[in-house]
Design brief:
Elements: H1 5-16, H2 21-28, H3 34-44, E1 124-125, E2 134-135, H4 148-154, H5 158-180
Antiparallel strand pairs: 1-2
Length: 181
């Protein structure tokens, strides 16, 4: 595909006559695509077009009100796979830990990685690069990573995190405004 002077002139003429990029590409042929036409139009700076009589209407267009669509729940396809999820990895997260409102700091016996059990809390304690590094080791439910105390610290509802982040941003803006004035 090459743009010679003859093709460029034909492109300019057809563009100004109101032809679409697809029509121009079809007319030019020889590997010229719609996207190539659009790119060349932009590089040439051809933005304005002549309005045809059919594209300019003498009376305003009135939109007809649409009837409300019935709210029918969609059924997933066979196997519970639907749309974009067709190739998704079938990830099933562990059940959310049961949180207690009055959580007290647990008195636990820190354990090494070798001493961890299926029902041990895996909250890290200390610096992993030292010999004294341990895990909480407190009692947790089967399939839950942390004890209730550490679960409360690890699993924060999304709304709470957003609310806290927004509070911090507002405080920063107030502080910046005070410093600026």
């Amino acid at each position: 595909m090459s743009w010679n002077d003859e093709r460029v002139e034909q492109l300019r003429k057809m563009w100004m006559d109101g032809h679409s990029a697809s029509q121009i590409a079809g007319e030019l042929g020889n590997g010229i695509t719609r996207n190539a036409v659009i790119g060349k139009v932009h590089r040439l700076g051809l933005s304005g077009r002549v309005k045809t009589a059919s594209s300019v209407s003498s009376r305003p267009r009135v939109q007809q009100p649409r009837a409300p669509r019935p709210n029918v729940p969609r059924r997933p396809a066979a196997g519970g796979v639907n749309g974009n999820n067709a190739l998704a990895f079938n990830y099933r997260p562990a059940p959310a830990p049961k949180l207690v409102d009055d959580v007290v700091v647990p008195m636990c016996e820190p354990v090494t990685i070798m001493e961890l059990k299926e029902t041990s809390c895996r909250w890290p304690l200390g610096d992993p690069s030292t010999q004294e590094f341990r895990y909480c080791g407190g009692k947790s439910d089967v399939g839950v990573t942390y004890c209730p105390y550490h679960a409360r610290m690890a699993y924060q509802p999304v709304q709470d995190r957003r609310r806290e982040r927004d509070r911090e941003r507002r405080a920063q803006l107030v502080q910046q405004t005070r410093m600026a004035s």
